[in-house]
Amino acid sequence: MGVVACVGAGSGSDGDAGRKPRPDPAATMTNQWAAPGGDHTEQRHSPLSQINASNVRDLGVAWFANLPERGGYQGTPLLVDGKLIVTTPWSKVYAFDAKSGRQLWKYDPKVPRELAGGVLCCNVANRGAAYWNGKIIWATLDGRLVAVNINDGSKVWESQTVDTTKALSITGAPRVGNGIVFIGQAGAEYLQRGYLSGWDAETGRKLWHWWTIPGNPAEGFADQPELEWAAKTWKGEWWKYGGGGTPWDGIVYDPETDLVIFGTGNGSPWPAGLRSPGGGDNLFVASIVALHARTGKYAWHYQTTPMDSFDYDNTSPFTVADLVIGGQKKHVVMQAPKNGLVYVIEAATGKVLSADLTVPGVNWLTGFDEKNNWKPIMNPDADPARTGKSWTVVPSQAHLWYPPAFNPQTGLLYLPTRFNSFTVVVEPDLAKSKQGIVMSGGQPSYAAPDLGTGPRAYLLAWDPVQRKAAWQSAEGSGSNGVLSTAGNLVFQGVGTNLLAFRADTGQKIWTAALGASVAAAFISYSIDGVQYLAGVGTLGGNAGGRVIVFKSGGNVELPPAPPVVQPVLNPPPDFGDAAMLAKGEQKYQQHCTICHEGRNTGGFPNLRTSPYLNSAAAFRAVVLDGALAEAGMLPFPKALNAEDAEAIRAHIVRLANTEGAGGAAGAGGARGSAAGGGRAGVAAGGARAGGSPDAGPRGGASAVDTRPVQQGGMGIFATGAPARAAGPGGQQDEINQIHQ
Q1: 610 pLDDT more than 80
Q2: Which of 311, 356, 383, 644 is catalytic?
Q3: Does the annotation mark 705 as catalytic?
Q4: Are the CB atoms for 231 and 16 separated by under 8 Å?
């Protein structure tokens, strides 16, 4: 099993070992919210109906709490025993009295700030905690699992789950089922090999470990015999590149089958032809995998994107439900990942019941081999490493980690959806691009696909039985999580507001200002017969976070938003020779654009307007010494030296002096883009630079669109024919990857 299998012996107290377990509040949804998705089904549907479509207008703020940590607030709160639990950047945890808002305790695992400079892909973030038998359990950025007593925040146990010598981190929430904690990790962007592991929830002792990618065949596959046949789907010496497949978010435990079902990440490097020259499906990249929860032994898998070359992580959240399909009850798991489809799969067997498009114009495949469990039929032109040509893929990232919700009353799955594209050009020199691609750079080999004039981001209500859209709302968001309730309501954060839609029709019926952007999802709970809504989000200007709680009749006023400070373009004169500038551009693309360009995941600024450009010493203090680490600017002492930092400064100064604060460039102003960053030309989700990724409808689309979404039938898939020239609204949309 290698080094990783040996790390992680639990430390600290045995905690509740030997004590009779308490009832599992995540076994079924009640007035609590005891798991990241509410309960083990992860439906994110509350059975509470005191707040409903007729009285939602009476909601007001019950209480709020501002939090100091900067970075990505991406966690769904928990509510257990009257305590509201939230996680924050740098893996800290707060507990509040859920009725009054009084802070009860805080736990800081003291994550080393220096790790972020060479380990984190995209943000200083945490997506939430789990609960088991009196303990709050969560993962830290540096790969630990921590369990504390829910009553006072005292540590019960702590375990290291990753090899700390490798570029691995954790931002996802663990899941707990039947006394076992399930956790993955991130790191595919750094050429790592993924795995899922199981840990004793009482003691933190490691129970099992399952690799997602086969290793060197010369070392054998005694511990995981399925990797022997998986290795036959790889070519060359893929193990030298890690392979990817890191399961960094989507995990669900299904008590009915006692399976843990999870998604694996993208291949590494991105182009399949680089990591596996000669072809092959590359199992288990971009796959849904089921393991027997107690043993970690393989049960089944389905690969959604064979030979993935487009960062099509399958790590979006899962939803378990009982559906009646063809007159028969089916216990299913559903998922809508990045690749533009939604899957309905038998949870016990892995048999695919349906795979349908959630966005039109998908061009990485041409159909399915339905007799072979709906195996995708790949588009031969959508293989830039083989063809040597660029490819503008549709979609780029239709659905990321933002939680969907399923309402068993309406039978609808509510999906934050984005419709966009991006161009991939292979960069075979991994010294220039960690992931082996250039995004939106170079000369396109084909005309960009025509994406039409419709909205680029919307809330989609999908009927998994009828296999069609019930409605979509361009007033909703493609980049915020969803809560469903029995009051015929769907709640979603949009911008810095909270919106309520009718669950049956999609009509927007209420909105309230939050003063913060809630990227995850709200939860609902009840105390003393009063129903509440609660969420946590990022304050404007990356100024920290805010917990905000609503109830009917709430009358607490939120403080006014701080004034927006407009950045000033005031660079020094150009400096540096051609060699220095070339080096600065390369290093900038490798290490800076990931946050300061089109992704812009944590509110990070346009570096052309940075005052630190005017001082070499100040710039080094930020880039190398971590002077702004608490503000979310990660230092890079392992990846960069003083000479590199000065070259980067020279490159940004040149951009500022020649192109101004942005012009046609993206959020951070790069002229082009390598993988790990991106030469951003257009902001995410279809909004041009300077706009919102969820800017709403284009071309006059109605707010609630009940027209059929293109789906079903092979005619809707793009073929290998040259793409049509872009029409109005058909411009290429830059990637905005908010994943690890």
Answers
A1: yes
A2: 311
A3: no
A4: no
